[in-house]
Amino acid sequence: MFAVLGLVAVVVFAAMAVPRGEQAPLTDQDIQELREDAPDGFVRQEDGGEFTNPKKVVDALAIFGIACEDPDYFTSKTDDQVVECWTGVAKVNFVVAKPGDSTFRSRVTSDPGSQRLTNLVLLGRNWALIAPCDVEYANSVQRAIGGKYLRQHFQKPSNC
C-alpha cells in the first residue's frame, strides 16, 4: 500500500556569490608580483584606481596577459568612453567616465541595467567593467588592477 502524504515543491534561486569562485584571495606575494609586472606609472589600487580612457585600461590588462580582443571604442549617450571587446568567452564592456565627471559612480550604481542580478559590474574610481557572461575574466581584472563588485551576489544570465 502506497499513500502520498504530501508534495513539497522547492524552488532554488541559483545566485552565485560574487564572484570569487575557485579563486583564492590575493596574497601579499601575489600583489607584489602584480606590482612588479605593472607598466611604468601604474600602481594597482584596491579600489581599481583611475584611467584616463578605455585604451589605458586595455593596455594595463595586456601587461598582465588579460586579453581584450577586437576592441571597439565608442562614446556612450552619457559621453562616457567605452570599449567593447571579446574575452575569449564573451563580450564585455569597459566604461570610463569623461574627465571631471563626478556623477559617474552614482549613475552606474543607480542604472536599472546595473541593478539586475544578471549583470556583473566591477567598479573602479572612474571606470566600470560590465561582464555578465564571463565571471573568470572579471575576477582576473580585479586581481590585476583592483576594483570592487557592485553587489555580493550574481546570477549568470541564461543566454550566456
What does this structure look like?
The protein is an alpha+beta fold. The protein has one domain (16-154): Protein Transport Mog1p, Chain A (3-Layer(aba) Sandwich). It contains five helices and eight strands. The strands form two sheets. Strands 2-3-4-6-5-7 form a six-stranded antiparallel beta sheet, sandwiched between helices. A two-stranded antiparallel sheet has the order 1-8. Strand 2 (69-75) and strand 3 (81-86) form a beta hairpin.
What's the total count of β strands? 8
> What is the H/E string?
EHHEEEHHEEHEE
The major β-sheet equals: 6 strands, antiparallel
Sheet/helix structural class: alpha+beta
Q: Distance N terminus to C terminus?
A: 47 Å
Calculate the mean pLDDT score and round it: 78
Alpha plus pi helix count: 5
Output the CATH topology: Protein Transport Mog1p, Chain A
CATH class descriptor name = Alpha Beta
- In angstroms, what is the radius of gyration? 19 Å
Tell me, briefly, the overall form.
globular
Low-pLDDT segments, ≥5 res? 1-26
Across the major sheet, the strand order is 2-3-4-6-5-7
Q: Provide the domain count.
A: 1
Estimate percent helicity: 25-40%
- What is the annotated CATH architecture? 3-Layer(aba) Sandwich
Give the strand content: 15-25%
